[in-house]
Amino acid sequence: MNSVGNEKEVRYNLRYTDQLVKCARIFFGESYDEIAEKLDSGILLGEILTNIHASVGPIDALMLELDKLADLNYDFQYEAVKNKDFLRAKKIIEEGLLIR
Fold this sequence. Notes:
Elements: H1 2-28, H2 32-36, H3 41-50, H4 59-99
Helix pairs in contact: 1-3, 1-4
């Protein structure tokens, strides 16, 4: 069970990183490569979100890609919560069986 969760998390991280790069390439344009090596992903996203109108590329395209990034995050968080609920329910059932 753990390996499945870890595999999903690795896939999410890869997809999230790829999507963040798409957003950053629109935002920073040709200077992305130079800037990206200086900033981690959290700072990169923060810079984009706090200065969205300073985008080098089209803001509509940036917003579309940011929506995709948000969807990825939402889907992953939803799966994580669903998994926790399943594990919590399983624990309650197992504890109930032990009481009997």
